[in-house]
């Protein structure tokens, strides 16, 4: 069984060491089995551009976020505001939409079913020059319509 862990220390604006919330510590320690997780390659210009665009959407909607790095990551972004925490997998495709990522959806749905993460799990698919955002539920993915969730 493989695992990934990150240790992050947050500092307030005055530069003094500040406490790291339990929620953030949870968010940054994510274990998963070696099941050949499909992740977005973060090295190509297009992949980075899509991640920057997703980060800009989060910022515009009042979220603080971190980008998760590493080849075995499940999520590309972890975002939070006063009300909620989002674990976001970012994907891109020229055709096929969410159906191209059935394996990812299945793996993420199993995490939701097991209540492994203290927040909302989403997969954002950039297809046909627009975002399609899905909330991951225990049984699969549900398209988010209307406002930002």
UniProtKB/TrEMBL annotation:
<dbReference type="InterPro" id="IPR011856">
    <property type="entry name" value="tRNA_endonuc-like_dom_sf"/>
</dbReference>
<protein>
    <submittedName>
        <fullName>Uncharacterized protein</fullName>
    </submittedName>
</protein>
<dbReference type="GO" id="GO:0003676">
    <property type="term" value="F:nucleic acid binding"/>
</dbReference>
């Amino acid at each position: 069984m493989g695992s990934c862990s990150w240790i992050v220390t947050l500092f307030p604006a005055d530069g003094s060491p500040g406490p790291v919330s339990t929620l953030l510590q949870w968010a940054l320690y994510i274990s998963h089995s070696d099941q050949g997780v499909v992740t977005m390659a973060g090295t190509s210009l297009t992949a980075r551009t899509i991640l920057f665009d997703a980060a800009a959407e989060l910022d515009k909607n009042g979220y603080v976020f971190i980008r998760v790095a590493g080849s075995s990551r499940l999520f590309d972004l972890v975002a939070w505001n006063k009300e909620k925490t989002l674990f976001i997998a970012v994907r891109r495709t020229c055709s096929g939409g969410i159906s191209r990522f059935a394996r990812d959806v299945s793996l993420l749905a199993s995490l939701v079913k097991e209540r492994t993460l203290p927040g909302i799990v989403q997969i954002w698919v950039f297809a046909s020059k627009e975002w399609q955002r899905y909330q991951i539920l225990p049984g699969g993915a549900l398209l988010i319509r209307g406002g930002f969730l």
